């Protein structure tokens, strides 16, 4: 078993009176691709946001590469920079061109020179076939191109963990393929990925492990073949049945 | 196009004929539109107008800095910052409510009375400060509206990349916020172009004050008309630019483009 990169212990989070996470335990090993499935409102997005400290957990502990990042004394900006996050609605910066979007963190957080940041940004854009769009603004790109640009923006600073929050849900169906292909490539290269997704076929194919989240608890987890093939829990079976229908 | 020209010319001629046939026209022409007084007043009024322009440029720069700072203070979150938020809110309430002319009097005659400086500070400096104090309150409200119009997901994305709150505000939020409210800011600028004339109440020899002096010596109001024409000439390009920019912004929004 390879080393644990990220561990969440007994994570609790509520908004006002509503308990969204109710004692989540999870572990992410290095180079592992883990899919997080569950219906809308089950707490998938909240879990991702708590892990990289975009939301503060109410109780529990989060450990990133051996360091307790849920400690209130930890510098949150520095911790967040060690995560890559891709959102459902891309959230590219509309006033910056594609290259500036990708290099903004390299320049401001990681203090790279302009030349070094631009060189890295162009290398990443060339990799996803968007080098010719480097100086365009995001609104000139298709949804799939925007989301792929958002993915390379998230990996530009070589994060320890890549968090993907339903990154294909806002895309037209014909654009989903190119985005998933990029995620598959990153997974094959050994990027540690935790992805909330509704793409069951993709989760089954790419993930090393699948977590089923329901009402703020992890009901069941296991290798995709087992979880999709012969789920043990009744709630998992019901969820998957609704998806198959 | 031809119809528009003809109709405009006909309309102008009618207005002109009506005006010159009013019983008092001759007297008004003498005391408001006298070419000789105009020519004589020109050097002094124009020189004064250059002071207005200098004050305008310095005040605009000051408002940009101070207004943005106030807006940023008001968007701070968390109970720790309550005093700063409250202070900024109180400030904007006070200076949006207070007539500019009263601010001018209080600053221009009040602060010098404290004898903080060893030498006399020129009236135009106090005038500039009063303009900055008042206009920053308006501008900060406009910028704050812009900041609040930037979608929260933008901040989320910036923070997720590890950008600090201040860096996110500076590089992600403010540029988008300013773009959204540029027409409103340009209108405030136009309005300030006129209000720089009010520094004359403190005794600064600007275009208005110069016109007043010329009027007193010539017993003729033409210098005021001259000063008015100069202010309009200064404002016109900005007014056109604002119209053009607002129309362009509207077009882009209707096309569904992101700003």
Instruction: Output mean pLDDT of chain B.
Output: 92
The helix-and-strand class of chain B reads: mainly alpha
Task: Profile the largest sheet of chain B.
Answer: none
The overall pLDDT of chain A, averaged over residues, is 93
CATH superfamily of chain A: P-loop containing nucleotide triphosphate hydrolases
The count of helical stretches of chain A stands at 9
Report the span from N to C terminus of chain A: 37 Å
Low-confidence stretches of chain B: none
CATH arch. level architecture of chain B: Orthogonal Bundle
> In CATH, what is the class of chain B?
Mainly Alpha
Instruction: Identify the overall geometry of chain B.
Output: flat
Tell me the total number of β-strands of chain A. Answer: 10
- In the sheet with the most strands of chain A, the strands line up as 6-7-8-3-9-10
Give the ordered list of helices and strands of chain B: HHHHHHHHHH
Radius of gyration of chain A: 18 Å
The share of residues in helices of chain A is 25-40%
Give the distance, in angstroms, between the N- and C-terminal Cα atoms of chain B.
35 Å
Name the biggest interface.
A-B, 26 and 20 residues
């Amino acid at each position: 078993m390879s080393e644990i990169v990220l561990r969440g212990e007994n994570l609790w989070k509520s908004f006002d009176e509503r308990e969204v996470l109710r004692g989540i335990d999870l572990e992410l090993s290095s180079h592992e691709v883990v899919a997080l499935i569950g219906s809308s409102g089950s707490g998938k997005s909240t879990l991702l946001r708590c892990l990289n400290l975009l939301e503060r957990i109410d109780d529990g502990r989060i450990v990133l590469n051996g360091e307790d990042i849920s400690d209130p004394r930890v510098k949150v900006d520095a911790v967040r920079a060690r995560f890559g996050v891709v959102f459902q609605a891309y959230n590219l910066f509309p006033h910056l061109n594609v290259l500036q979007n990708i290099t903004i963190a390299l320049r401001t957080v990681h203090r790279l020179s302009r030349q070094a940041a631009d060189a890295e940004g162009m290398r990443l854009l060339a990799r996803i076939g968007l080098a010719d769009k480097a100086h365009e603004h995001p609104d000139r790109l298709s949804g799939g191109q925007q989301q792929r640009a958002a993915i390379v923006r998230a990996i530009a600073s070589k994060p320890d963990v890549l968090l993907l929050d339903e990154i294909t849900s806002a895309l037209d169906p014909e654009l989903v393929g190119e985005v998933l292909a990029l995620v598959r490539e990153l997974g094959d290269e050994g990027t540690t990925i935790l992805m909330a997704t509704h793409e069951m076929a993709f989760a089954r194919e790419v993930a090393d492990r699948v977590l089923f989240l329901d009402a703020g608890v992890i009901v069941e987890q296991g290798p995709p073949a087992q979880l999709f093939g012969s789920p043990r829990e009744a709630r998992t079976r019901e969820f998957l049945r609704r998806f198959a229908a | 196009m031809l119809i528009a020209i003809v109709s405009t010319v006909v309309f102008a001629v009618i207005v002109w004929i009506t005006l010159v046939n009013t019983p008092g026209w001759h007297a008004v022409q003498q005391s408001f539109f006298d070419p000789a007084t105009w020519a004589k007043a020109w050097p002094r009024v124009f020189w004064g107008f250059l002071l207005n322009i200098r004050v305008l440029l310095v005040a605009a720069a000051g408002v940009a800095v101070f207004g943005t700072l106030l807006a940023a203070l008001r968007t701070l979150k968390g109970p720790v910052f309550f005093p700063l938020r409250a202070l900024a809110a109180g400030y904007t309430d006070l200076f949006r409510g207070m007539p500019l002319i009263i601010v001018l009097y209080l600053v221009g005659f009040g602060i010098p009375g404290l004898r903080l400086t060893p030498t006399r500070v020129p009236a135009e400096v106090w005038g500039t400060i009063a303009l900055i104090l008042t206009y920053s309150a308006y501008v900060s409200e406009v910028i704050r509206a812009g900041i609040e119009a930037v979608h929260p997901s933008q901040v989320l994305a910036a923070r997720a990349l590890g950008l600090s709150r201040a860096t996110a505000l500076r590089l992600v939020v403010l540029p988008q916020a300013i773009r959204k409210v540029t027409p409103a800011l340009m209108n405030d600028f136009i309005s300030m172009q006129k209000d720089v004339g009010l520094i004359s109440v403190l005794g600064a020899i600007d275009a208005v004050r110069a016109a007043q002096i010329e009027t007193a010596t010539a017993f003729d109001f033409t210098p005021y008309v001259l000063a008015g024409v100069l202010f309009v000439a200064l404002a016109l390009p900005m007014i056109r630019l604002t119209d053009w920019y607002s129309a362009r912004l509207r077009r882009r929004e209707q096309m569904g483009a992101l700003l």
